[in-house]
Write a structure and sequence with these properties.
Helix content: 10-25%
Strand content: 35-45%
């Protein structure tokens, strides 16, 4: 079938605004095995980008998820965007893995909040992890924090650090069962970096809890990291 759908993007791109909304057209629908869609206006003067997701079953209740992005252009000036897409997805595949292992079938609520920061990515990362009790975090350990907009407790599931992106992925049991992906990314072309939080809440009141948590985190990130002199 062919249909239009809106969704929130979280790709590292100098052309997409923070928390930007883009629209895609579904071109292939063979659920649950193959889904394809194309985005035609994801950035100013950008060529169309097509995405195909394939799920292949394996023995032992396992599967392989394969995602392919294709740009329809003869120019190589957009190559870095494909690299940006590829580096942005692993964290969200890790979220999917945790969901399937610990929360499969549960009602979900989610949100993404982002804000620019004037400092470089490393400096912003150090400040963020110090404030949220995540400095020096290691995979498998439990971390708790009472700072930030809400107190929380959870297990560190995944960590990534490189020149472009830094984040910690937590499986939370408080203030509500769920997942949090919090981190920073390089935005040198914009004069600094970005700070983001992706929060997934699971349970009967997941949607309401996510909506309440989103407001608190959005306000806190903006007040804590937004460059001085910036206007709302």
């Amino acid at each position: 079938r062919s249909t239009l759908f809106p969704y929130t993007t979280l790709f590292r791109s100098p052309y997409r605004g923070l928390g930007a909304i883009t629209t895609g057209e579904v071109t292939t629908w063979k659920a649950p095995h193959t889904i394809g869609y194309v985005e035609r206006e994801w950035a100013p003067n950008a060529p169309a980008v097509a995405t195909e997701i394939t799920v292949i079953g394996r023995a032992g209740n396992q599967c392989v998820v394969r995602m392919v992005h294709s740009l329809f252009t003869s120019s190589d000036e957009w190559d870095d965007q494909i690299e940006g897409f590829a580096s942005g997805w692993p964290g969200f595949f890790a979220v999917l893995r945790i969901y399937l292992e610990h929360f499969a079938g549960a009602t979900a609520g989610s949100f993404i909040v982002m804000t620019p920061a004037s400092a470089d990515s490393l400096s912003t990362w150090v400040r963020l992890t110090d404030t949220l009790g995540l400095a020096g975090a290691n995979v498998g350990e439990r971390r708790t924090a009472s700072s930030g907009p809400e107190a929380w407790s959870g297990i560190v599931e995944h960590i990534r650090q490189d020149d472009e992106q830094r984040y910690v992925l937590l499986r939370l049991d408080a203030p509500s069962p769920g997942i949090a992906l919090v981190g920073t990314s390089n935005a040198a072309s914009l004069g600094g970096s970005t700070v983001s939080l992706c929060r997934y809440v699971y349970g009967d009141n997941a949607v309401a809890l996510a909506a309440e948590s989103e407001t608190s985190w959005r306000d806190w990130l903006s007040k804590t990291f937004e460059p001085q002199g910036a206007t709302a």
